[in-house]
Amino acid sequence: MGGRGECSQTFLPATLDFLGIPLTGSGVYGHALALDKSITKQILMSNGIPTPPSQVFHKPTEKLSSALKFPLIVKPVAEGSSRGIEKECVVVSKRELQVMVKQTIDKFNQPAIVERFIGGREFTVGIVGNLNPECFAILEINGVPSRMKDEKIFTGELKVKEGYITARTHIAKLSKEEAIKHRDLALKTYRALRCRDYARVDIIVDNTGAPWVIEINSMPGLFMDYSGYVASASKAGLSYPQLINKILDSAIERYPLL
C-alpha cells in the first residue's frame, strides 16, 4: 500500500482519489490520522476517549516524562498489524527503555511511541458503515505471556502465525452493560478519527475494569479464515460475501451516481 511508515496506508487512496476512481474504506485524511499513533491519541483525548498516556521519542536519550511510570511498552509510531510488537517491548527500567527505543527507531526508521503498559483483557471489534455505523461481535484475544506476571500480549509474530482464527480468539464474555460501553467507545473512536466504510478498534480493559482504546485499524485485513475484522463479522453471523457487500454498500452511499 505504499511501503511502511506514515504514508503506508495513504498512497493508494490518494492515487485513486487523484484519478477519480471510487474506492472503499477511509480516505487519505482518515488513514493518516489513524496510522500515526501519536496523532490518534491526541484526537482521542480531545474527544474524552480514554487511551494510555504516551510520549514520542526521536532518540533513545530523551528524558522520560514524569507522567509515565514503568512498566511501559515501546512501539513504532506509524506501523500497523502489530509490526514491532514483541515481548521485549514491555520495559521496566530506564536502561531497557533506551535499548528498546533505539532498536525500534533503527529498525523502522521512524520515531518510537512509549505508552503506559495496560495489563488486562484485550478486545477487538469490527465496524461497518458511515451515517449509522454498526459494530460486529466483540472478540477477546488471549495473547502470549509478556514480561509482566500474569499479563499477556498479542505480538506481531503471533498475529502473523495464527491470525484471529485459533482458540486464542473468541466471542467476549461480557455483561450487557460492558458490551454497550465497549461498542460505544469503538464507535466514538471510529467517528473521531474520520474513518469511512469499515475499520477495527482495539480495546484493553485493565484489572480495575476501566476500558482503554489502544488504537484503530483504518485498513483492517479482509483475509478469510485469518483476519480479525472478518472474524468479528463472522461471529456476528455474516458470511464473507455478506460482509463484502456491506462494505461496498457503505462506499456506494458516498458515490450516489454509481
From TrEMBL:
Chief subcellular location: cytoplasm
Localization annotation: Cytoplasm
Classification via PROSITE patterns: ATP_GRASP, DALA_DALA_LIGASE_2
Annotated GO MF terms: ATP binding; D-alanine-D-alanine ligase activity; metal ion binding
A Pfam family the protein falls into: Dala_Dala_lig_C
Record key words, sorted: ATP-binding, Cell shape, Cytoplasm, Ligase, Nucleotide-binding, Peptidoglycan synthesis
Family stated for the protein in its record: Belongs to the D-alanine--D-alanine ligase family.
UniProt name for this protein: ATP-grasp domain-containing protein
Organism of this sequence: marine sediment metagenome
Lineage: unclassified sequences, metagenomes, ecological metagenomes
